[in-house]
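Entry for adenosine-5'-triphosphate complex. Fields follow.
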Amino acid sequence: MTTPPADAPKLPDDTLLRVEHLTMRFGGLTAVDDVSFDVKRGDITALIGPNGAGKTTVFNCVTGFYKPTVGRLTLNGAGGRGWLLERLRDHQISRLAGVARTFQNIRLFGGMTALENLLVAQHAPLMKASGMTVLGVLGLGGFNKAEAAAIEKAKAWLERIGLIDRADDPAADLPYGDQRRLEIARAMCTDPVLLCLDEPAAGLNPRESGDLNALLRSIRKEDGVAVLLIEHDMSVVMEISDHVVVLDYGKKISDGTPQAVREDPKVIAAYLGVEDEEVEAVEREIEGAQA
Ligand SMILES: Nc1ncnc2c1ncn2[C@@H]1O[C@H](COP(=O)(O)OP(=O)(O)OP(=O)(O)O)[C@@H](O)[C@H]1O
């Protein structure tokens, strides 16, 4: 595999990802229209907006599932190296640039145990340690050490998400909320710099949602990993996000702290399904209510 040149522009030290003028067209439909925003290091950034606003499309561009029609996605990755994500293949985005993701629908290996799911995520370093040879896998060279380290890491994550007692149970047998957290732990086992989560709270009950919030806060605090998430559950967004980006009809309509975004008339109008001309009226109503 050839390593792409590191010709990405330098970002400010506190900025992990810069999305510039991102546009994605599907035939005649512009799903994402000239969207720009930053993801700061160690921040939880939420991407919100009504159905069809373009959130998943932005996500798919950042994680390499789509190549943007227009736009630049600069990531200051591991070791301070810069990457232009739109020039990388999707496997390079995860392995070289350090971007991990989960999906709207859980994609664990249901027949494998919880522990095995976390080991599979560490396949790349294990293969490297094996020297890609049978002798390596049989225990010569650094493979045994790497395998022991992978098991330790997997166990540490199972402890952290409260599933160590279920390490040997098939992932499919775990309750839904546990599967969601296991999926996040699996993504974390790849040592990402950016963790992208597509609706992590979907289908969770309030207790499971609380556990998820705690896990994401600990990832921010203890691992220093930045999180970019799409979420419809506003209680999760408002509680854990440092930064919220709002899309509507493919365009960015607001960008700021949860508090600022919550009070932005354009956001309120978008969620209420109000036409553009009526935004000022909504604005006046909000000001009136706050007075
Ligand atoms: N692969 C595709 N081909 C054609 N149109 C697409 C494709 N992916 C998304 N779209 C369209 O792009 C627009 C934005 O879709 P997207 O899934 O990004 O929105 P979203 O904000 O994630 O919506 P939701 O909250 O419902 O998941 C929609 O009109 C959708 O139908």
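NOTE: Residues 114 and 171 are 5 Å apart (CA to CA).
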